[in-house]
Specification:
The complex is a heterodimer. Chain A is mainly α. Chain A contains 7 helices and no strands. Chain A has one domain.
Chain lengths: 232, 60
């Protein structure tokens, strides 16, 4: 059995510690927003989850490019793992956004450009996972996965910039003081510190989860290889 | 609803939504962790079983 690397244990410990501190900052350090009330606190982890979702899809696209260049199966495992984690966090992002919208926009859902592009992005990667299941040949599956992850990545910048490119009611967090940005979002220094700390925390969680998921993928490949040997 | 909140002195009462939001965040992360652990455990069981089969095949 492959032993757990020491660095991974350290990253796990740091991730858990950061998550505890970030949660404490969200509830006890950041001030309550004057208009929205307590629900605004969802924003810190909502954006951080969205960031991890997009980071996962970016890693999958990069892994796809490297796989097509090198043909090393390890990059396919990294790509698949990154998509899976990206989907989990993009899902958290969409659901928490809907919960925030209910008291603020007076609706659970609206087909606003940001919400629509985020949903399309999530569905594109859900299709990636489903279509992979339908391919038996591992090399074909890896090649398909690589190309799909690269092409599918177009949905990520489209989602990110949708709040700037189109007329939307979704607040713009990064670059909200730009002239084209609708719905300015001002944060106090404590809010900004909590927000940036949440982004750092979720980045560590992503690295930790990705490493664990890649190890799981390698184990699955090993089992598949032995199964083929036993069957032969 | 936002406009009515602006006209009020106190912030909107949205604590329930905040609790729901964080329940989803921690709940989904926890479920994903459980699936990772379960899949790993199942694969280890498969691996042990297959290695046993291989050993038995090698025996005369």
């Amino acid at each position: 059995m492959e032993s757990k690397p020491r660095l991974l244990t350290i990253i796990d410990a740091v991730s858990v510690t950061l998550l505890v501190v970030a949660t404490g900052m969200v509830f006890f350090y950041a001030p309550m927003e004057a208009v929205m009330g307590q629900v605004q606190r969802v924003f810190y982890f909502h954006v951080a989850a969205g960031w991890v979702g997009m980071l996962g899809f970016l890693v999958a696209a990069v892994a796809g490019i490297v796989y097509l260049r090198t043909g090393r199966r390890n990059w396919d495992t990294i790509g698949l793992s990154a998509v899976e984690i990206g989907m989990v966090f993009a899902f958290i992002n969409i659901v928490t956004g809907s919960i925030w919208a209910r008291p603020i926009w007076n609706t659970w859902w609206t087909w606003d450009p940001r919400l629509t592009t985020a949903t399309i992005m999530e569905l594109i990667y859900a299709a990636y996972l489903m279509l992979r299941q339908g391919l038996e040949d591992p090399d074909r599956r890896a090649r398909f996965g690589a190309v799909y992850a690269i092409v599918g990545f177009i949905s990520v910048p489209l989602t990110f910039f949708s709040a700037r490119l189109f007329r939307t009611i979704h607040p713009v967090v990064i670059g909200s003081n730009q002239p084209g940005a609708e719905g300015a979002f001002d944060m106090t220094p404590k809010m900004l510190q909590t927000f940036l700390f949440s982004l750092l925390t979720f980045s560590f969680i992503f690295v930790s989860l990705l490493w664990h998921r890649v190890r799981l993928g390698r184990l699955a490949e090993k089992v598949e290889q032995i199964k083929l040997k036993v069957a032969a | 609803m936002l406009l009515s909140s602006l006209l009020q002195d106190a912030p909107a009462q949205t604590t329930g939504y905040m609790i729901a939001g964080y329940t989803v965040i921690f709940g989904v992360m926890f479920i994903y962790l459980v699936t990772l652990i379960t899949r790993r455990r199942n694969l280890h069981q498969d691996l042990e079983m297959l290695e046993d089969l291989q050993r038995k095949d090698k025996q005369p």
